[in-house]
Amino acid sequence: MNAIALNARPSASFDAKLAQTKALLQQAAQEFAPALTLACSLGAEDMVLADLVNTLALDLDIFVLDTGRLHAQTLQLLSQLQTTSRVPVKVFQPDAQAAADFVAREGQDPMYKSIELRKACCHIRKMEPLERALAGKTAWITGLRREQSGARADVPFVDRSDATRVKLNPLSDWTWGDVWHYISTNNVAYNPLHDDFFPSIGCEPCTRAIALGEDFRAGRWWWESSDLKECGLHVKPQAGASTPVAASAQAHVASGDVKPEGRDEAKTSVQETA
To answer: Are strands 36-39 and 139-141 parallel, antiparallel or unpaired?
Structure first.
């Protein structure tokens, strides 16, 4: 059973949500273009948005952060998007020297050693490229949904809390079923990892499949505390806030929790139940 067959279950108000999403995108393009961009992670939500901005022929561009650690399937989807999109697709990569120096100093997979090193890796591979991608932009579009996690439960359609630029979240009230219904009915290309029970897809070493009943983002940085599962792209900084202290991933590695086969075990447990 693929992701469409498993998940394409629209909510009763899907048509109204879709109309509202289109209206918000069109209004945003009128207000902010050409200083408007779509942040595309190549996940299911962002592929929906990429399809919509192309269908609506909006005056904006799409950007993708190629961290240097993406799955092969994700890179293949990126290539496909670049080929088929009428809207320009820009790719931003980490500073090559900064990434090389970090790996030389901390090793190929430092994210398993501590949360501090994981966040340092995210900063080099995601946060710094994001700053370049958003330079000169007054607004950006994301695929954030309230249903994705507790930390995102209050995601607004229009977020003006950042004085630098407006963040637009047109799919804020969409369900996972809504997303896959749109993908199914509009023949939208998607990452085949979704068929293998990867609902949330990031860098290869930091993403695994999830088991039935697990949280939507349980497969992201699964060795960390559940309240820390963000890379920083969508976290609002709080003045005076200190970084939460989490147990080192080294303990999980030692106990066998962090291992490649763990991803296959998670996938199998879902397949057996699906």
So the answer is: parallel
Would you state the pLDDT for residue 225? 67
Q: How far is CA 58 from CA 13, 38, 133, 223, in A?
A: 25, 11, 18, 40
Of the listed 121, 122, 203, 231, which one is catalytic?
Answer: 231
Per DSSP (E only), the strands in the chain are 36-39, 61-65, 89-92, 139-141, 158-159, 166-168
Threshold 0.85, pTM exceeds:
no
Apex 265 CA angle, 263 and 266, nearest 5: 65
Q: Average pLDDT, whole number, for the chain?
A: 85
| DSSP secondary structure code for residue 123 in this structure | I
Give the 3-state secondary structure of residue 86: coil
To the query of whether residue 231 is one of the catalytic residues in this protein, the response is yes
Question: Closest Cα partner for 138 from 165, 172, 112?
Answer: 165
What is the set of domains in the chain, with CATH numbers? 3-273 (3.40.50.620)
Which pLDDT tens digit goes with each residue over 93-141? Answer: 999 999 999 999 999 999 999 999 999 999 999 999 999 999 999 999 9
